[in-house]
Amino acid sequence: xxxxxxxxxxxxxxxxxxxxxxxxxxxxxxxxxxxxxxxxxxxxxxxxxxxxxxxxxxxxxxxxxxxxxxxxxxxxxxxxxxxxxxxxxxxxxxxxxxxxxxxxxxxxxxxxxxxxxxxxxxxxxxxxxxxxxxxxxxxxxxxxxxxxxxxxxxxxxxxxxxxxxxxxxxxxxxxxxxxxxxxxxxxxxxxxxxxxxxxxxxxxxxxxxxxxxx
Length: 214
Prior knowledge:
It is globular and about 50 Å long. The longest helix is centred in the first third of the chain and has 29 residues, at 3-31. The protein has one domain (3-213). Helix 2 (65-92) packs antiparallel against helix 3 and helix 3 (96-122) packs antiparallel against helix 4. With 214 residues, it is of the alpha+beta class. The chain has a four-stranded antiparallel β-sheet. A two-stranded antiparallel sheet has the order 4-5. A hairpin with a 2-residue loop joins strand 1 and strand 2. Helices cover 53% and strands 14% of the residues.
């Protein structure tokens, strides 16, 4: 594939994901209070939560300030590496599907880092009774790099109870699927999933080439 086409595909994928991701987050942030939900179907809800950690609500350092700072800085560095890798793929004329997958991963990572870097300084705090609003830069609920990521996609497909003999959780109720996530998380997950299913060989070869160049 020619470099120009690959570059266009990469740009379109990245822009589409970031626009949809940020539009959905800003709408949620400015129209819903924390933990407010909208039931779309029995198995799908728009449920507003804020996540100081990683994808799907996972945290680093127990959600501490230093853990959040480390995560934000790590994301920025990771985005730099992924962006350079994507640039090299486009330059070498890799398949459009492979470029699109890396574009999805880059866009997802970038979408979440926007929240982490900027949301704390441009939004007031979301609470159980208060809907956030835009505020002058620096008057928000947190400092630079300490913003919380907005999550809202919740798929409680079914609920049940662990059997009494089940280790640790025996007799307790559970919900599947319980993590709450966003468009950016989805883009990263879909990109990685397609890579592993359809482009595993291409991924291995591209990484081997980078090792050979070293």
